[in-house]
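Incident log, support desk, overnight shift.

02:14 A customer reports that sequence design results differ from what the structure should imply. Their input is reproduced verbatim below. On-call engineer (initials T.W.) acknowledged and began investigating.
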């Protein structure tokens, strides 16, 4: 495995880098402990490696493996297989469904590929990521099947999602998504504060839920649709383009079969992919995913299937 680069740039290089399970372990060590081993119990940097491959802390005696406390913790599958799955999934520009992955990698069980992809989606948002800045368009949309008897910003079974996108000289920059309970200021304003730099110019429609943005220090530009002869997608073209793209992605890659409980994670995946769409090498997405996998805590099946999503605020 080469040392001068952080990631393989081609699949040929990928195969060369990760010929054995030990190659994968060494790569994880390099990323997880880039500045040297740190004991997860006492934070000491002094340790020695046991014959079983565990790191034994010289200070407190705690033993840990390179995968303990990571997404890979407790896996019964080889890391080589995990690496191949991550590379393949990141190589698909439009993403993959569990069925696609099962067929492509010849897994026996659909449940395995579904679980692995769910675990990967849960690590795609980097804590402390930079906020959007410059000119940012914000709007909400419903995601879900057709619903009768519901109009405006009311919703029953559909999920209301607020979307923000940077717009620079007519070109789209980075995006952010959040599933929200309703279109009140209590839901919309925290989303903007969490995701948009205070020095930005925020553009919204005339919905009252955004009216207090200026009081929060933002330059707030209102495009009042009811007082214009233009449609919403003409007044806020950037965010409506993103809304159209993410809906087509959900319908195309996932056939619209995404439950409300897991929707935020699919939106996180789309954000991860969209914000890196101009990357020259798919290997960089692989590298970022491995980075997130080793700094994220282990995820259990109960957390995937039994708990509601709670976005980091």
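02:41 Re-run completed on a clean worker. Output:
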């Amino acid at each position: 495995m080469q040392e001068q680069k952080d990631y393989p740039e081609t699949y040929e290089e990928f195969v060369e880098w990760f010929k054995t399970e030990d190659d994968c372990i060494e790569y994880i060590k390099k990323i997880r402990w880039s500045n040297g081993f740190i004991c997860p119990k006492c934070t000491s940097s002094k340790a020695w490696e046991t014959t079983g491959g565990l790191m034994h802390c010289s200070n407190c005696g705690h033993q840990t493996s390179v995968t303990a406390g990571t997404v890979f913790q407790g896996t019964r599958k080889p890391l080589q297989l995990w690496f191949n799955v991550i590379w393949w999934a990141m190589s698909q520009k439009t993403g993959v469904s569990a069925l696609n992955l099962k067929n492509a990698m010849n897994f026996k069980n659909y449940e395995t590929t579904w679980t692995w992809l769910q675990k990967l989606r849960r690590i795609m948002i980097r804590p402390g990521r930079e906020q959007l800045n410059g000119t940012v368009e914000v709007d909400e949309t419903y995601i879900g099947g057709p619903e009768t008897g519901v109009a405006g910003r009311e919703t029953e079974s559909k999920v209301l999602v607020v979307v923000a996108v940077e717009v620079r000289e007519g070109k789209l920059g980075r995006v952010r998504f959040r599933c929200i309970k309703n279109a009140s200021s209590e839901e919309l304003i925290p989303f903007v504060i969490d995701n948009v730099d205070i020095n930005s110019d925020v553009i919204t429609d005339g919905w009252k839920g955004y009216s207090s943005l200026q009081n929060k220090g933002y330059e707030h530009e209102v495009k009042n649709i009811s007082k214009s002869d233009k449609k919403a997608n003409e007044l806020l073209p950037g965010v409506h383009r993103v809304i159209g793209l993410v809906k087509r992605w959900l319908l195309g890659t996932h056939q619209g079969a995404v439950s409300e409980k897991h929707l935020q994670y699919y939106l996180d995946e789309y954000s991860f992919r969209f914000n890196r769409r101009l990357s020259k090498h798919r290997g960089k997405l692989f590298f970022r995913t491995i980075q997130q996998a080793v700094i994220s805590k282990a995820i259990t099946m109960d957390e995937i299937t039994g708990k509601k999503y709670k976005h980091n605020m």
